[in-house]
Amino acid sequence: MTQPTEPDKGPVKSTPDEPWPVRVVSQKIGAWIAKLGWVWVDGQVAQISRRPGSGVVFLTLRDPSADLSLTVTAHRDVLDAGAPELAEGARVTLHAKPEFYPNRGTLSLRADEIRQVGLGELLARLEKLKRLLAAEGLFARERKRRLPFLPGKIGLITGKGSAAERDVLMNARRRWPAVEFRVLHALVQGPGAVPQIIDALKVLDHDDTVDVIVIARGGGSVEDLLPFSDEALCRAVFGARTPVVSAIGHETDTPLLDYVADLRASTPTDAAKRIVPDLADELRLMEHARARLDRAVLGMIDRERQRIEAWRSRPVLARPESLIDQRAAEVTALRDRAGRSFEHRVRRADDDLRHTVARLRALSPAATLQRGYAIVQRPDGHVVRAADEVAAGDLLRIRLADGELQAAVKES
Question: Signal peptide location in the record (predicted)?
């Protein structure tokens, strides 16, 4: 069954049994492209072709940030009116309509107005992009990573055979002869620079042996350094895992890459000095550190020696037996004192005893008996003091100074 058709558009739907002819597909592609209408396009001129005797000029318009390009056709009068001095590498803004050519199966832009972007406008665009990236935090100082003290391998992205490459390699190896590099060459200006630099950055960023990446280029005009202010390149550097050093142009050149990179070097030579230490300086620092360490150790030993000597000069260490002698003298003195005190106490006690004995003897009846007196007692021990205390026939006991007598009372 035949599919319904639209005027001049062929079948509405294609099937395996009734496929569309090539002309129908080409017509539909042309129709869809024509729906885009007139648009303003920004790009970089990669090639200009002015054919003698022809009123049409062919341009190759390239995207600065990607490996993409489109063909642009314009009348010579349009180009002369809008950009008479147009050269390859220039940035342009053009008003064009996309057209599909079925015979060749190609797409191109037909421009009716071309404007070359001047330096002032380029700088204004860069300033606007700078504010945008800063607001997103791509320039934040706290996200910048510290470079390793001595990288095992350095990745270098630069132009092939450029002075920047020689400066980085020569100065880095002069400072540290054993340094290793992995060099990837890329365009550093022109329409194809940004895609090649981004591709090289991805390769080095995925190499686990690379510890730091240097993007280097010598000096140039503002237009020559535009690739290093490209938004796509800035975002690629921001997203890299490996620390990135920007060494673009001279000290006064400040592309946006300088703000995004982890370290900004004023020149490629300065980058070599920043990424590797100077072997001679490090050896000199090591000698100074070792000398300081020697002085510190010797000073510590001298202080400890003096402290030990001070300890040894103390009497307790100089003559340790003096402490024992002192204690022995104290013990002897205490012992003598105790002896004297005991002897004094004994003498005093002896004197007290003799005095007591003398008093006892003076008061004792025995002393009276010594003088011839006697003590008369009855058998029960009662001292007889009067004659009427006894009766005739009582037995008495007479105590003398020396011995006793037994007596009986004859008469009372």
Answer: none
Alpha helices, DSSP H, located in 136-250: 163-175, 193-205, 231-238
In what helix (H) or strand (E) does residue 360 lie, and over which residues does it extend?
Answer: helix 321-363
Tokens representing 305?
Answer: 């020696």
Residue ranges of domains in the chain: 5-118, 123-277, 281-313, 318-361, 366-408
The answer to whether the CB of 272 falls within 8 A of the CB of 242 is no
Cα 218 from Cα 163, distance rounded (Å): 7
Q: Rounded to an integer, what distance in angstroms lies between the CA atom of residue 129 and that of residue 230?
A: 9
pLDDT digits (tens, 9 = 90+) for 317-339: 777 787 788 888 999 999 999 99
> Phi then psi for 58, rounded to 5 degrees?
-105, 130
Q: Taking 80 as the threshold, does the pLDDT of residue 362 lie above it?
A: no
Topology match between the domains 5-118 and 123-277? no
> Measuring CA to CA, how many Å separate 186 from each of 116, 124, 192, 197?
26, 27, 9, 6
**253 contact partners, CB below 8 Å, separation of at least 6:** 219, 220, 225
At residue 73, what is the residue type? T
Considering the segment(s) 123-277 as one domain, its CATH architecture is: 3-Layer(aba) Sandwich (3.40)
The share of the chain scoring above pLDDT 90, in percent, equals 38
- For position 12, what pLDDT does the model report? 63
CA distances from 405 to 36, 197, 319, 365, 387 (A): 175, 155, 81, 17, 18
| CA 265 – CA 254 distance, rounded (Å) | 10
CA–CA separation, 257 vs 227, rounded Å?
A: 9
Give the pair of three-digit tokens for residue 306: 């003096």
- CA-closest candidate to residue 378, choices 401, 400, 409: 409
Q: How far apart are CA 334 and CA 298, in angstroms?
A: 51
Tokens of 99: 């057209």
How big is the chain, counted in residues? 412
CATH of domain 5-118: 2.40.50.140
pTM of the model as a whole: 0.58
